Structure formats: C-alpha cells, structure tokens
Amino acid sequence: MEVKRVEPGPGQESVWDYPRPPRAEPSSRHIQVLFNGTVIADTQRAWRVLEISHPPSYYIPLEDIQPGVLRPTPHTTFCEWKGRANYYTVVVGNKEAVNAAWYYPEPTADFEAIANYVALYPHLMESCLVDGEPVSRQAGSFYGGWITSDIVGPFKGEPGTLGW
Question: Strand ranges (DSSP E) for 22-126?
C-alpha cells in the first residue's frame, strides 16, 4: 500500500521522518492536561516518543501530575519496543476516565528514560495542550498520539491504515 505522505511546511515535522524502531527524546515544550475542570498535569520536562506514522506521545514526570488523580488499575498491555505498560484511571471529583493513562515501570533499555513517566490518551481528557495549542487525538482507541499544527501525516489509526 502506497502512503501519500504530506510534505511538511516550515516549522513542521512529518511523522514519516520519525524512526522505526521508535525513540524517546526530551521535550521542553509546555505540556498541560485538563480533566474535569482541573489542570492535572503541567510540565516542561516531558519526553516524547516518536515512531514512523504516529504523532508523538508525551510522557509526563509523575511529580508534575497532581497528587491523588491517578489510581492504578490491573490493566496491562505489551509494546514490542518499550515492554509491559501498566495503567491508571484518572479521577477528579465525581468524574473518572478508566485506563486513561499508562506508564512503563520497567521499560526496555532503550526507553529507561521514561520509566514511570505517564502518558495520557487525549480523547479521554478534557483538553491536552502543547505550548498552549489544544491537541487533536490520534484516531483509534488504542493509539495515544498528540496531533498539533506542527505535525503532518497521514497518521496510523485513520481509516485505511490497518495494513501499515
């Protein structure tokens, strides 16, 4: 299947220039996450994971997430690159988002930098922001990529991308 890559403009990145296998890199961009009217995460010390065809997933240091909003769940998944992920339910007041956040307690050697950092699904949050810009979610319930105006695709998860 031939992919019709969108050419990036000035100041943009194409997900088709990202690596496979993926890599983690530090990001000093201002990352904020809101849920049920509350800023639950606010950092400029995130890591982002880049993988071909996927918008970045941002991993936030646990100490930059409001205490008490993350509740461990028994849910786990496995990534061939990063290892076993554990999940949290996000709870603020009377609202919760089940399995809305994930982390790697013991990631593979290439991803040790994101050990216990937390990623959140944008479609389960009220709002996720990168430098003040609201992100769009990556299509599909499995993917947690954050799409901003400086990232171009097409993106894995959109209709017709199953075979990528």
Answer: 23-27, 31-35, 38-43, 46-51, 54-59, 70-79, 83-92, 95-103, 118-120
